[in-house]
TrEMBL record:
Upper classification of the organism: Bacteria, Bacillati, Actinomycetota, Actinomycetes, Mycobacteriales
Keyword hit for Transcription regulation: yes
Gene3D superfamilies, alphabetized: Tetracycline Repressor, domain 2 (1.10.357.10)
PROSITE patterns named among the record's database cross-references: HTH_TETR_2
Protein name from the UniProt record: TetR/AcrR family transcriptional regulator
Residue ranges flagged as DNA-binding region: 26-45
Keywords: DNA-binding, Transcription, Transcription regulation
PANTHER family, per database record: HTH-TYPE TRANSCRIPTIONAL REGULATOR BETI, HTH-TYPE TRANSCRIPTIONAL REGULATOR RUTR
Sequence ranges assigned to domain HTH tetR-type in this UniProt record: 3-63
Signal peptide, first to last residue: none
Residue spans crossing the bilayer: none
Organism: Corynebacterium nasicanis
Amino acid sequence: MRRSKRDLILDTAVELVGRHGLEGLSFESLATAAGLSKSGIIYHFPSRHDLLLGIHRHLATTWERELEELAGAPAAELSPTERLRAVVTSMGRTADLPELLMHLDARHDPVYQAAWAEVDRRWMPEPDSTGAYLIQLIAYGLWAHDHLHHAPLDPRAREKLIAAALEQIPT
C-alpha cells in the first residue's frame, strides 16, 4: 500500500526531531527532507502547532498499535492485568529519542497532552491502584533510562528487569 503524503511528512518529521531536536524542525527542513515543497507541507499542516499536534497524534497512534499487537487485542477487550503487561513490555524497551522529546514537549500544551492522554486512559492503571501504578513507574524508568543515565542498560539486564516487573504485576 502506498504511503500518503501526510504519513510521509509525519515520518520525516519524526526522523528530523530524532536527529536535530524540535529546534531543528522547520517547514523548510521538513520539505527538503521529505522531498516536498514547503507549500505541500503547509497544505497538510497550516501551522507549526498543527504539525507538532500531528506528530504527537502520529506517535501516540503508533504506540497504541504496538500495545495492541503485544497484547493481542484492543484495550477495551483486555483485563487491567493484560493491559499493564503490554505497557511494561513496550516501555521496557529504550525510548526512541523523538518519542521522548515529544513527550517532554507535550507537557507545555494541553492539546498535545490530550493526544497521549487518550492512549493512557485506555492502557494505564489509575494512580490509586498503587501496586499496578508502581509497576507502571518502573516501566517509565526503563523506557527513559538510557537517555538519562551515563551508560545504557545491558540488553540482558534490561530483559531481567522487564521480567521482574512483569512478575510483580498484581492480578
